[in-house]
C-alpha cells in the first residue's frame, strides 16, 4: 500500500489546493472577486504593458488557449484593454486600464497576506529555505509543464 504523504507530487497538489483556497478566502474577505491567475495577469501586465496574449501566457506559465477566457473576463470588467498590434494585425496587445491599475493596487495587500497565511507555520529561516527549494524545483522541471514559464519578453 502507498502512503500518499510520502509522495511529493501528492503533497504539492494538496499545497496548491490550500494556496488557492487561502487566496480566495483572503481576497474575498477583502471584497475582491479575483483568482490567482487573474492576479498574475494583472500584475504581469502592470510590469509589461503592451505585450500580446501569447507572451503573457508564457510569462505566467499558463495555457495559451485558456488565457483567452481570463483576458475576456478581465476586459469585460474594465480592468484591461486589448488593441490590435501595430506590428502584427493578427495579434492583440494588452494593457491595464486606469481602473485595472487601481484594482490591482487595492487587491495587492490581500494577495500578500495570502502568502503569510500559507507560510504561517514556518519560521523565517524555513521560509527562506522553502522558497529556495521551491524555485529550484520549478526551474529545474519547467519544461515538463504543459505551459512552461517563459521569462523573456519580446518587444511588441
UniProtKB/TrEMBL annotation:
This is DNA-binding MarR family transcriptional regulator. Gene3D superfamilies: Winged helix-like DNA-binding domain superfamily/Winged helix DNA-binding domain. The keyword DNA-binding applies. The lineage of its organism: Bacteria, Pseudomonadati, Pseudomonadota, Alphaproteobacteria, Hyphomicrobiales. It comes from the Bacteria. Keywords: DNA-binding, Transcription, Transcription regulation. Residues 8-139 form the HTH marR-type domain. It holds the Pfam family MarR. One of its GO terms (molecular function) is DNA binding. It comes from Martelella mangrovi. The keyword Transcription applies. PROSITE patterns: HTH_MARR_1 (PS01117), HTH_MARR_2 (PS50995).
